[in-house]
Design goal:
Layout (H helix, E strand, L loop, with lengths): L6 E2 L2 E8 L12 E10 L6 E8 L2 E11 L26 E8 L2 E9 L6 E10 L2
Antiparallel strand pairs: 1-2, 2-7, 3-6, 3-8, 4-5, 4-7
Length: about 130
């Protein structure tokens, strides 16, 4: 048994995370989004696929991509040429996504053997229309 392998019989494990339908412009007309971040625990630099839905329409998602936060490596536990040492304060991966909607939802998907992946939530950037 290896703690370093995150797979099922050498097949990657697929992670899917859904948000409920949210209305960030409650009490206003609509929400004009500018960007978002997927808040994850520090770990491997995993590629995340994000699908954004709006106005209760799940038939036409907008496909976006980002990367999960990376963690600093400890002394003598990594390859010298391919690792980050003391990466300081982790930078969130901000993805530009401009649209206007009354309600929206997101689906985050990741499929790899480099897990585990912990998603804490999402941070939306935008303004409410008056």
């Amino acid at each position: 048994y290896s703690n370093d392998v995150f797979s099922d019989d050498d097949m990657p494990i697929k992670v899917e995370w859904f948000t409920p339908w949210i209305s960030p412009a409650r009490g206003f007309k609509r929400f004009a989004a500018m960007a978002f971040e997927v808040l994850t625990e520090q770990g491997a630099a995993l590629a995340l696929r994000v699908q954004r839905y709006r106005e209760y329409d799940t038939s036409r998602p907008v496909l976006l991509a980002t990367t999960a936060n990376i963690a600093a490596d400890f002394w003598n536990e990594s390859d010298w040429d391919s690792s980050y040492f003391d990466n300081g304060i982790p930078e969130m991966q901000t993805v530009r996504d401009a649209f206007v909607a009354s309600v929206l939802a997101y689906k985050v998907t990741e499929e790899s053997t480099s897990g585990p992946l912990t998603i804490f939530g999402m941070r939306l950037y935008g303004v409410r229309e008056r």
